[in-house]
Amino acid sequence: MNYFYSQQGEDIYIYNNFINKIVPDGTFIELGAVDGVIYSNTKFFEDKLKFSGTLIEPTNQYANLIQNRPNCNCYNVAVNYTNEKVKFLGNFATAGLVPWMKNLKIFGIQIHKNIMLMENLFAKLSKKAI
Question: pTM for this structure?
C-alpha cells in the first residue's frame, strides 16, 4: 500500500532525509493543497506521524479539501506579499497568481481572490501554537 502522495516524491524525500520518526507536536503548512490528497506533500505526515497543520487552497478544490482533511486548519485564500485583491488563475492542481502563470492561461479560469499576507498567516499560526 502506498502511503505517500506527493507528485514528485517530496514527502518521501523529507521523510527519508529529515523526519523519519514520530515527532511530538510536528507541524506543517502546505500552500496549494488542492483537495488535500492528490499531490499532497503533507498527508503522509498527518496520517502516519500524527503531525498537525495548515492547508491553503484558493481554488474551488477547497470544498474537497475541508472534507478530506477535517483535522487541519484550512484557508480558502491566496498568499502573497502585498495586501491587495489579485487575479488568480486556477484549474485543479495547476494554479497561481496571474503574473506567474502568463504562459499557462489555457489551464484555468481567472478569479479574483482575497489575499492573506504571509506575515499575517504566520502570526495567526503562532497564536494557535501558544
Answer: 0.80
